[in-house]
Amino acid sequence: MKEIETTLASFEPISLSQMSGIKLMNRIDTKYMIDVRLLPKLLEKAKADYFAQEIDGSRMAYYRTLYFDTENAEMFTIHHNGRRTRQKLRIREYVESNQRFLEIKNKNNKGRTKKVRISVPDENVLVQDEARSFIEEKLNYGIERLSPRLRNYFYRVTLVNKAKTERLTIDVNIKFRNCKTDLQNTFEHLCIVEVKQDGNMHSPFKDYLQCERVKRKGISKYCLGMVLTDDSLKRNRFKRKISYIKKMLKVA
């Protein structure tokens, strides 16, 4: 972490208010998984082409996420079964800025992700009138079927290209705790990189990854966390990706 922070300090900063125009709510996401020990090298290449988001003097933001699902984990299962059209419901907390948002992520059959969200005061969204109305209007699942299923914690680096047409998130130190089984798990050196664009525009960071022979390969943090913390769930679709992670990180 220290080496990452040192490298980030050499980037030109961009503030949260300057980021406000870069929403990319209707976007195509390209995900990669890398060993975090490769990250300082990639960041060193990126500093000429990208700004680093800075909040209160920090360029690594701490995030907490709470995912909701049905009792039989229907949102997880739909993803596992390969349905392209799917939804996820979560509360995303930005710890440094003390903000919480109730978010619904919608993925369509063309692979585009559209996110809608509202600000919430705390996690008790299933009993808050405004949050309940939002869920009932936007989510394809009855609110009475929902309960907290997974907690997810990580540090995020956010980069923005100099033209402000691309946003890049880099998640490290990713940890999970299951609300149903109370099991915890993590891949210590796993780093998830996500390039977020409104279309398939040129991305310098994709070029850096290609030079390191890193291929496009992503995994949902929600699905990864669920598989790692609940042995009762189906997992065939994710076995190959988990094997890839273990081989990449050289863990048993």
User: Reading side by side through the largest sheet, how are the strands ordered?
Assistant: 2-7-6-5-4-8-9-11
Measured as a percent range, the helix fraction is 25-40%
Overall tally of structural domains: 1
Report the mean per-residue pLDDT as an integer: 93
How many β-strands, per DSSP?
A: 11
Enumerate how many helices there are, as a single number.
7
Structural class: alpha+beta
Shape: globular
**Content of β-strand:** 35-45%
CATH homology group: Hypothetical Protein Pfu-838710-001
| Element order: H for helix, E for strand | HEEHEEHEEEHEEEEHHH
Radius of gyration: 18 Å
Tell me the quaternary state.
single chain
* Distance from first to last alpha carbon: 23 Å
Low-pLDDT sequence parts: none
- The appropriate CATH architecture is Beta Barrel
Q: What's the CATH first level?
A: Mainly Beta
Q: What is the CATH third-level topology name?
A: Hypothetical Protein Pfu-838710-001
Please outline the major beta sheet: 8 strands, antiparallel, barrel
Describe this entry's structure for a reader:
This protein is of the alpha+beta class and 252 residues long. It has one domain (2-249): Hypothetical Protein Pfu-838710-001 (Beta Barrel), CATH 2.40.320.10. Helix content is 25%, strand content 37%. It is built from 7 helices and 11 strands. It has helices spanning 2-8, 39-46, 74-80, 129-138, 204-211, 221-229, 236-249, and strands at 12-15, 26-35, 50-54, 61-70, 86-94, 99-107, 113-119, 146-161, 167-178, 184-186, 190-197.
